[in-house]
Design brief:
This protein is 32% helix and 12% strand. It is of the alpha+beta class. It has a single domain, classed as Factor Xa Inhibitor (Irregular).
C-alpha cells in the first residue's frame, strides 16, 4: 500500500500545534479591506482552531503532520 500524499494546498493553510490541534487562518482578509473597520481586520489576523467535526478531513489532507 503506498503512502498517502500530502495535499500541498492544505499543508500551506493548516499548521499543527504542539498539542495536536490544527490552526487555520481566517478568511475575508485578502482584499476589499477599506470598507472593513480596524477592529474587524484585527480580529481576522488572529488564528482559529479547526472545528472538531472537520478534523478527520484535515488529517486526511495532511497525514504526515500528526
Amino acid at each position: 500500500m503506498p503512502k498517502i500524499k500530502t495535499n500541498r494546498s492544505a499543508a500551506k493553510r493548516f499548521k499543527v500545534t504542539g498539542s495536536g490541534k490544527v490552526r487555520r487562518g481566517k478568511g475575508w482578509h485578502s482584499h476589499l479591506l477599506s470598507k472593513k473597520d480596524p477592529k474587524r481586520k484585527r480580529r481576522l489576523r488572529v488564528f482559529a482552531l479547526v472545528a472538531r467535526e472537520d478534523m478527520k478531513r484535515v488529517k486526511r489532507l495532511i497525514p504526515n503532520s500528526f
